[in-house]
Specification:
The complex is a heterodimer of chains A (about 800) and B (about 110). Chain A is an alpha/beta fold and about 800 residues long. In chain B, strands 2-3-4-9 form a 4-stranded antiparallel beta sheet, with no helix packed on it. Chain B has a 4-stranded antiparallel beta sheet with strand order 5-6-7-8, with no helix packed on it. Chain B has a 3-stranded antiparallel beta sheet with strand order 1-11-10, with no helix packed on it. By secondary structure, chain B is mostly beta strands. Classes of the chains: A alpha/beta (about 800), B mainly beta (about 110). The interface of A and B includes residues 535 and 543 of A.
């Protein structure tokens, strides 16, 4: 069998090997990688930096893949020499390896400008997973970071650091950000958006020197100005890594020169990826590498025939909340060129199409890149757009997106990075039984590049796959493409305090009845009540603190801690019921009294007349603590359940939770207040207390799990509090404690709550105290309404026309 | 075709609705920031109070069963049985909101 040596374990090299493996096996393959990682998705490093993806999530080929295909993998070995005559390569470990065919996929190196001081500590490049790790280690909230380079990579790095809490400045030599992809107007729209996110942008700044005593302290610019910083990221572009090509005596210009068959000037040596130059062009994007790999695989396996014809250049900035897309040629100086433009400064949207003889030649989209697919397909097909001149910038909206997908021709490319067509996806679904996005990734490689086609792939799955299940990690709704866990992280790191802010930056700017209440809860919980409350984002119950009924009236349930009341309270309740002609007075299942059929405008007066706090019976929050009679009266009672229940209710009252929380305290194992089917239950017994969690006796029935058994009442209350705060912080909105406990597992919950290290437990309790300090009886809004017409029925100024 | 002076614009908070009796009708008026939209106050499904719903773009979500009513046309979105309620033109004059009623369809 012929020996194939691949130098380079990155996306281009391995994608090409995958293509080679599709032909019948004919090579004994060895892959050298100077990094110590298996092949990962380099494009997503910025997502790792920004915390949107975990490091392990970006792996493309796990070790098993190499094993399965009998590929010898030499990680952490840099190939330092090639002997083209003897057909050998030499590693930096001194080991010499023979080859019959050699594939160079050496990629690029970061370009380091000749600036003194770049050897200081605190200066980083951003190219590899290890670089990313080092940056993450050095970046702490408050760190002053300077990113030299305002191109794609620099901006993504800047955003990543800013998300981590750093104070970030981007320094760009040119007057336009992303000047390789944008015109001046597009660049200024981008600059504005980046600055809105809190990143400083300095344009037209050349770097003179990096100063600091051993460690970076500041940057000096060519104009004499300086900038203090603790950290510098150099993102000034990349240079093809052609050293081995030169050593092998190949023809090398900017990159290793290849022909249309991906052959170099040596018959046994091939090259692919960022290190090659084809017809004078060096590509630094993933899509061309994949196209090249397919051609190379045909050539190297003796199936020479496919040719590489060069690739369309397209780039998309991957920063959440900043849409930038650029493709094709923006050269306006050529004859017969027309430019179609649209801009809206208030919305921050800029679109420009460059047309040549009625065909699309180039496109720039800033602020709204949702149409990128349409433009890419026009560019690829070079379609004559004469008949579509009126809708170039504004397509007729598709009634729903399913139709959009159905209308797409089979030949249209869905995943631009991996070159996967709609037809290929459909046949994978039909012929290989693909049902999930991860299976689709596995089978077709679609959506494994930049990830921007994920939504389209999901739509195709939805339309065609019989049992398409949304991936387990579901985003909250279509308005916000994030899981709740991601969102909590984003809200924390970005210091977002209002629902609209989250929607504007990370979502569609509108929101819906699902995400708005969820975000409202999240902000209140994360900022311990210190958020900007927006009642328009709340369900009506939380706008007027009462439960809406089927006829639009409301129900009023005052708090009765532990279910204990007094004759005076009962008298007031009776008086109120008569005075406001309450339609029904009902004892609830939670040891309280419900007044039903109340008009919204009567609510403030009823609350005042009752003189009792809100029982929160209308909201996702702490409802009540049910108690049995306990040792004070009950002849079997072993613990004072009533007093303990009242204490528990007082400690947690008026706090909001992901879903309602119903609790109970019982004084003996007879369990008369049903503590074993409550979200949190305390079960008193002779000399000890059991704390149980995750019980249910509603839509589901579930016996609560034992969290811990403790000796004293104080310990039991604290265990309940620790669990309560953990549930508040970790559960998804509308996830009841019993679903949460099942999902996370009681063992893990124990480890992270009652058995967590003291500082962790203490921190949970501290955050609970902080929330408690902000929590107040919502019915006090009767005195200070959040808006003058919160409860008021507006009367028209005139009932007759003016 | 008459314009009724209804209320000061500040009485309707941003992205919320309020119901007002105008002539012999109860109308729900919504503040969308850049403009005000008005429709009949009751959901065509089971009469839920639309003014109490969450506003989603130019739609309101009924608080009872989450029917989605378009605030421009009054039509109900995404439900099998077609249903529609009246919508009313609005304008603002010196900080006062006016509603036209009986409603006219803008360009018939």
């Amino acid at each position: 069998m012929e020996k194939l040596v691949v130098v380079g374990n990155g996306m281009a090299g391995i994608a090409c090997v995958e293509e080679i493996l599709k032909y019948s096996p004919r090579f004994d393959i060895t892959v050298f990688g100077d990094e110590t990682h298996v092949n990962y998705n380099r494009i997503l490093l910025s997502s790792v930096l920004a915390g949107e993806k975990a490091q392990e999530e970006i792996t493309l080929n796990p070790l098993d893949w190499y094993r399965e295909h009998g590929i010898r993998l030499r990680l952490g070995v840099r190939v330092v020499d090639v002997d083209a005559e003897q057909r050998t390569v030499t590693g930096d470990d001194g080991h010499v390896t023979d080859w019959d065919k050699l594939l160079l996929a050496t990629g690029s190196n970061p370009f380091i400008p000749p600036v003194p001081g770049l050897d200081k500590k605190g200066v980083f490049v951003f190219r590899t997973l290890d670089d990313t790790r080092s940056i993450l280690e050095a970046a702490a909230p408050g760190t002053k970071a300077a990113v030299i380079g305002g191109g794609l990579l620099g901006l993504e790095a800047a955003r990543g650091l800013q998300v981590r809490g750093c104070e970030v400045s981007v320094i760009h030599l040119m007057d336009t950000l992303m000047n390789m992809q944008l015109d001046a107007t597009g660049g200024s729209y981008l600059k504005q958006r980046i600055e809105e996110l809190g990143v400083r942008v300095l344009l037209g700044k050349g770097t003179q020197a990096i100063h600091g005593n051993g460690h970076v302290e500041g940057i000096e610019f060519q104009d004499g100005e300086t900038l203090a910083c603790d950290m510098v990221i150099v993102a000034c572009g990349i240079r093809p890594n052609v050293e081995l090509g030169r050593k092998a005596g190949l023809e090398v210009n900017r990159g290793i020169v290849v022909n249309d068959f991906m052959e170099t000037s040596h018959p046994g040596i091939f090259a692919v990826g960022e290190c090659v130059e084809h017809k004078g062009t060096v590509y630094g994007l993933v899509a061309p590498l994949i196209e090249q790999g397919k051609v190379l695989a045909a050539t190297i396996t003796g199936n020479r025939g496919l040719t590489y014809k060069g690739s369309l250049l397209a780039s998309k900035l991957k920063i959440m909340g900043v849409s930038v897309f650029s493709a094709g040629s923006l050269d306006e100086s050529r004859p017969a060129t027309e430019v179609v433009r649209y801009e809206d400064p208030a919305l921050g949207i800029y679109k420009k199409l460059v047309l040549r003889e009625n065909r699309l030649a180039g496109v720039v989209l800033v602020g709204d890149a949702s149409d990128d697919h349409r433009y890419m397909s026009w560019l690829r097909s070079a379609a004559d757009l004469t008949s579509q001149r009126k809708s170039l910038l504004f397509p007729a909206p598709a009634a729903d997106q399913g139709i959009d997908v159905a209308q797409m021709p089979d030949s249209e490319v869905v995943c631009g990075c991996m070159g996967v067509t709609k037809g290929a996806i459909i046949s994978a679904i039909h012929d290989q039984g693909v049902n999930t996005l991860s299976q689709l990734k596995e089978c077709t490689r679609a959506s494994t590049g930049c990830g921007s086609c994920t939504r389209l792939c999901e739509q195709l799955l939805q339309a065609v796959a019989p049992e398409f299940e949304e991936e387990r990690k579901k985003s909250i709704c279509a308005c916000l493409p994030f899981t709740q866990e991601n969102l909590r992280e984003i809200v924390r790191s970005q210091q977002l305090k209002s629902v609209q802010e989250v929607l504007d930056i990370y979502g569609n700017g509108i929101g819906c009845e699902i995400c708005k209440p969820a975000l409202s809860y999240m902000l209140d919980m994360i900022w311990c009540g210190g958020h900007e409350e927006d009642r328009s984002a709340r369900f009506i119950n939380d706008r007027v603190h009462a439960n809406i009924q089927r006829d639009g009236s409301f129900s009023v349930i005052p708090q009765m801690p532990g279910g204990v009341t007094t004759p005076a309270e009962l008298r007031r309740i009776a008086d109120v019921a008569e005075k406001y002609q309450v339609r029904m007075v009902k004892v609830t299942g939670s040891q309280r009294i419900d007044l039903l059929g109340v008009k919204k405008e009567d609510l403030p007066r009823i609350w005042a007349d009752l003189g009792m706090p809100s029982g929160m019976a209308y909201t996702k929050g702490v409802r009540m603590v049910k108690t049995c009679v306990g040792s004070e009266f009950c002849r079997f009672g072993t613990q004072d359940s009533t007093a303990t229940g009242i204490e528990l209710e007082r400690r947690l009252q008026h706090l909001h939770t992901p879903h309602k929380v119903k609790m109970a305290v019982v004084g003996c194992p007879r369990n008369c207040a049903e503590a074993t089917v409550k979200d949190i239950g305390l079960i008193g017994q002779e000399g000890s207390w059991q704390v149980v969690v995750g019980g249910a006796a509603g839509k589901s029935v579930r016996k609560a799990d034992l969290l811990i058994t403790v000796e004293t009442r104080a310990q039991a209350l604290e265990a309940a509090e620790v669990f309560f705060q953990f549930y508040r912080e970790q559960a998804n909105y509308l996830e009841r404690s019993y679903d949460f406990v099942e999902r996370v597992g009681i063992e893990k919950i124990r480890k992270e709550t009652i058995y967590a290290p003291e500082p962790v437990r203490r921190a949970l309790l501290d955050r609970l105290s902080k929330s408690r300090a902000h929590a107040r009886d919502p019915w006090l809004e009767r005195e200070n309404p959040v808006h003058p017409t919160q409860f008021v029925q507006i009367e028209a100024m005139e009932g007759t026309p003016s | 075709m008459n314009w009724y002076r209804v209320t000061n614009v500040q009485n309707i908070p941003l992205r919320e609705g309020r119901s007002v009796r105008v002539g012999d009708r109860e109308i729900a008026i919504f503040n969308l920031g850049s403009r005000f939209l008005a429709v009949d106050s009751r959901c065509p499904h089971q009469g839920g109070p639309l003014a109490d719903g969450i506003v989603v773009g130019e739609t309101v979500v009924c608080p009872l069963h989450a029917w989605k009513v378009c605030l421009r046309s009054g039509s109900v979105r995404s439900h099998s049985e077609p249903a529609c309620i009246e919508s009313y033109p609005t304008r603002v004059e010196d900080g006062v909101l006016l509603v036209q009623y009986p409603a006219v369809s803008a360009v018939a």
